[in-house]
Amino acid sequence: MLTVAPDIDVLVRFGRALADPIRCRILLALREAPAYPADLADALGISRTRLSNHLACLRDCGLVVTVPDGRRTRYELADERLGHALDDLRTAVVAVETDRTCVDADDKGCC
What contacts 51, CB < 8 A, 6 or more positions away? Predict the structure, then answer.
């Protein structure tokens, strides 16, 4: 049964997904069109095993869903608004100073 996550949970899940470059690439690819895992792995130049792990994370975060298609399974964004959100984030990031690096909280630094 699907439920709607609270606002903070949604942001944390989205942040977790975006924290990895491969997951970002997957989300951007799925923003363009739904895809099958084998095609995604080939397009991104990564192994199917590695892709599978990242897709599982994105599914667990609630950002992608699987759609049965005969004997195959297709992946797509869970909500078309996620594609718009990715576009908005991509355009917002260009305002960040390019000579600064965002560090992890464990490094005791801040963007």
Answer: 22, 26, 37, 40, 41, 44
3-state helix, strand, coil in the chain (%, to 5): 55, 10, 30
Q: Which amino acid is at 84?
A: H
Query: Which pTM value belongs to this model?
Result: 0.80
Q: Judge: domain 8-83, CATH 1.10.10.10.
A: yes
**Series of mean pLDDT values for 10-residue runs along the chain (111 residues):** 73 89 96 96 96 95 94 96 90 69 54 37
Q: Cα–Cα distances in Å, from 33 out to 27, 30, 74, 80, 83?
A: 10, 5, 10, 10, 10
